[in-house]
Amino acid sequence: MKSRARYKDRISCEIRHFTVSIRENSTSNMKLIVALCLVAVAVAAPPRSNSGNVEIVRFDNDNIGLGNYKYGFELTDGTGAEQQAELRNEGKEDESIAVRGSFTWVGPDGVSYRVTYTADDNGYQPTIEQGSGGAVPPAVVASFLG
């Protein structure tokens, strides 16, 4: 009987030790999960920018709806666009419109970019220019070429 009582005490002690161990690990795991969640939120946060303070510097629009048009704008953050179109072969079977233009922006790296293009019977033909700071990334070139 005495050995049986010792066995029960030993099992009870081991079970209590196991329970405490689980609780300690659960607390550690919970702290780790909370810390990882905070890191994930910080990483997923959008970057700070001054885009809320952007103002229109210039806006031009000349379009009376008869084929030819011209427009342009500039913003205080360096973004801008110009475009003009000319109706070709008006009233004929091969009537088309030829568009020339450009758009500019300043990338998150602080480098200015400019795309100048023509879109006519020969398709879309962009030329990409970049201010100082390095080569135009291949992904940017590919996105404009389709």
Automatic annotation (TrEMBL):
<keyword id="KW-0732">Signal</keyword>
<dbReference type="InterPro" id="IPR031305">
    <property type="entry name" value="Casein_CS"/>
</dbReference>
<dbReference type="InterPro" id="IPR050468">
    <property type="entry name" value="Cuticle_Struct_Prot"/>
</dbReference>
<dbReference type="GO" id="GO:0008010">
    <property type="term" value="F:structural constituent of chitin-based larval cuticle"/>
</dbReference>
<dbReference type="InterPro" id="IPR031311">
    <property type="entry name" value="CHIT_BIND_RR_consensus"/>
</dbReference>
<keyword id="KW-0193">Cuticle</keyword>
<dbReference type="InterPro" id="IPR000618">
    <property type="entry name" value="Insect_cuticle"/>
</dbReference>
<dbReference type="Pfam" id="PF00379">
    <property type="entry name" value="Chitin_bind_4"/>
</dbReference>
<protein>
    <submittedName>
        <fullName>Flexible cuticle protein 12-like isoform X1</fullName>
    </submittedName>
</protein>
<dbReference type="GO" id="GO:0062129">
    <property type="term" value="C:chitin-based extracellular matrix"/>
</dbReference>
